[in-house]
Sequence to fold (183 residues):
Amino acid sequence: MTRSSPIPALIPERRLRARVRAIGRAIQRDYRGRDLVLVGILKGSFIFMSDLVRSIRLPLRCDFMKVSSYGTRTQSSGRLRFDFDVSLPLRGRHVVVVEDIVDTGFTILKVLAALRGRRPASLRLCALLHKPARGRYPVTIDYLGFTIPDRFVVGYGLDHDGLHRNLPYIGAVDEGPREKSGA
Ligand code: IMP
Ligand code: MG
Fold:
């Protein structure tokens, strides 16, 4: 995709920064004295994760898991591939999963189920963005950045066909609300 005009901002940098710091402080408050592991879901969470961990003044460990939904379109295909797994043992540890966006909820539901199988002492979800209009699977987000309308968003780690992850803010690339689809 080529673009001559800048991508319009939905969430500007300063709002992202303030919100990420607030989430960091909340996690810091909740996990003091606990054996904490943050698990970032790649690729989309890499920027959020890196800012978030720097807002948590506690001893903690970082790990990553990579999953991809098939296809490169703006609609998730409902199939998931686990590309690589966490390397730390999670048993008995307090785990917070760090995800970029919960759309239908399919991806994170599968990820949480896989991690629950490792028998952590506790398991919570931290997501930067939530699109409730598209929710199809029951997901509880324990730490949420922003609720957003049904737009396709990019930047701050999120991509469209691999592009725009490096945008320092959250922008919208579609022309407005999408049609609902069963895909
Ligand atoms: P879900 O499985 O439908 O919840 O989709 C979640 C995954 O789809 C996210 O982890 C993203 O990788 C991708 N995704 C969903 N909506 C967007 C969006 O608006 N922009 C970029 N990626 C998205
Ligand atoms: Mg993702």
Remarks:
- Confidence is low (pLDDT under 50) at residues 179-183.
- The CA atoms of residues 155 and 170 lie 5 Å apart.
- Strands lie at 9-11, 36-42, 60-69, 80-84, 94-102, 122-130, 143-147, 153-154, 170-172.
- Helices lie at 13-30, 46-53, 106-116.
